[in-house]
């Protein structure tokens, strides 16, 4: 398996055709076709089904693409870093974060770090919590900002924060007139919720069940709180979300209201346990904590209490805020 073969495969996947891939790679169409065919012969299965000049990825092609793109991205980073070293440039900050933390905390934290340490190249990727953890463990990034759980061997958790989830409503929603939203009221409405069943969604479902939500309108599930806000603004339902997204990217026409039930959102900063942090990364971890601490209701927890926090964050918690 050669680098050129993976590049040809990824280019065909990205453009949807051999012709487009050839233009992207500045190679001839027969050369790109040959590289893909050589790769297929090497791995022993077809990556595309072919119908004349048009190609359609096979199921195996989709499965391989994610790993191929990750490998090519790592190689591109090596090439870029080699050039930066030759020029004497500062080492870039390689960061990964869930969308909520990337929107709600990272911009302010990066601004604070650059004021102290000067501007540096930054490569920021947003991903699911599981992908953020994988990027940190694999060394693809130097620092991750992620929701809990974060108990993975090889990770250093620098701090754990907690914020109460909020109801996100259209400003003309009748419930928007209330200072605090009863969760039982939301249980009767169409809910826009996160699709990951093991994090915030798990705590929300437990509290809704306790509120008597045995039957409700069909859910809208999404993997992005920014998507959820846009769906609420369109009048498709109401949402229970962490407050970070609305803090970093508020949408006109929406209001946030506290809930009568405490549904905690836990999050933190992680780095590879085996790698010492540079001064800039240490400053960034601290700046992220300061940015989080500036939000109303923020609570910081000892990282040693991680397992207990998850155990104690289930139902039967009423908000006293």
Automatic annotation (TrEMBL):
Signal peptide: none annotated. The keyword Transcription regulation applies. Residues 1-58 form the HTH lysR-type domain. It holds the Pfam family LysR_substrate. One of its GO terms (biological process) is positive regulation of gene expression. Keywords: DNA-binding, Transcription, Transcription regulation. One of its GO terms (molecular function) is DNA-binding transcription factor activity. Transmembrane segments: none annotated. Belongs to the LysR transcriptional regulatory family. This is DNA-binding transcriptional LysR family regulator. It comes from Roseateles toxinivorans.
